[in-house]
Amino acid sequence: MRTTRQLLLGAIRPFEDSNVRFWQLLPHVDSIPRSMQSENVAHALAFCELYKSLGNWKACQELLEPAVSQLDRTVEGKADEDSLYVMSQLADALQRDRQWNEAEKLRREILTLRLEMFGQRHPDSISAMSNLAQTLSICGQLDEAEKMEREVLAFRLETSGPRHLDTVSATKSLAATLWRRRQFKEAEQMGREVLALRFEILGKRHPETISAINSLAVILYSRGQLDEAEKLEREVLDLRLTKLKRWGERYLLLGSSFLEDGI
């Protein structure tokens, strides 16, 4: 079993275009007991990468909670960078699994520790604040979320400028909160700004650009601008179908090569 685990760990690498390979590995990974998968922090993070790519957030939680406990027993404890990274990964998994109260609690703890370690204006503290604000926004705590997101955006503009991708992401997060607050006019303005910058910096077919098109379409729909919203939604659908078609052709060719090789 340990040999199998080591072989699988060697096969788990970040995927570029598709998680098809991870689906192929899944039955073998699932055959390994969770206690063995999480025997040390590095193994837990590697297996979590696979489960994360497949959307199994419960499995990620089961791997990351013991990892946090292991790191919490080190000399540095929760003030250690590794601990904070694993805690952040666990908060992501909890949020994706819709365990918002637990995610919020953990993100507040991370932000407190970041502020103690680095102060308010350090990039890591700002990232922790941004993560907490997004969680609060999803939970409906919109006043606190908006306040934090405006603070994050002001910092990003000051330190990185308006064209940096971190600044663009901060703008998109604030636009989402404003949309939830039904402040559609300002949300639309920010949504258009995000789309223009992502289109220029990343190109039309980048996933983050497609996400920006979709977000703007949602805002426009909420404002009753249905013609433009429909046009953008059709564009999103076309871009995503094109990408799926490209994946399908790629893995059809891959499967053919396996058959030719007798695999």
Automatic annotation (TrEMBL):
Source organism of the structure: Serendipita indica (strain DSM 11827) (Root endophyte fungus)
Annotated protein name in UniProt: Related to kinesin light chain
SUPFAM superfamilies: TPR-like
Pfam families in the record: TPR_10, TPR_12
Top-level lineage group: Eukaryota
InterPro entries associated with the record: NLR-like, TPR-like_helical_dom_sf
